[in-house]
Write a structure and sequence with these properties.
Shape: rod-shaped
Number of strands: 0
Structural class: mainly alpha
């Protein structure tokens, strides 16, 4: 049991000291941050597009109703 504990300790210590994949982790975190920002921005973009289509539909309805009485 003591040998297993020592092996686990050495393995965890090696993981803490090892810097081989540090750049990869940093890039992954950066990509996650960018993805979150894009996702939040999409809500505003979708609202803007929806609002633009609503205005277009309103204009078309106004034109159709004013042209029908002529």
């Amino acid at each position: 049991m003591n040998d297993l504990t020592l092996r686990i300790y050495v393995w965890l210590r090696t993981l803490m000291v090892c810097e081989e994949a540090q750049d990869l982790v940093e890039y992954a975190l950066l990509c996650a941050l960018i993805a979150c920002g894009v996702t939040m921005g999409m809500k505003d973009l979708a609202f803007g597009i929806d609002h633009a289509f609503d205005r277009i539909a309103f204009s078309v309805r106004q034109s159709a109703s004013s042209g029908a009485g002529d």
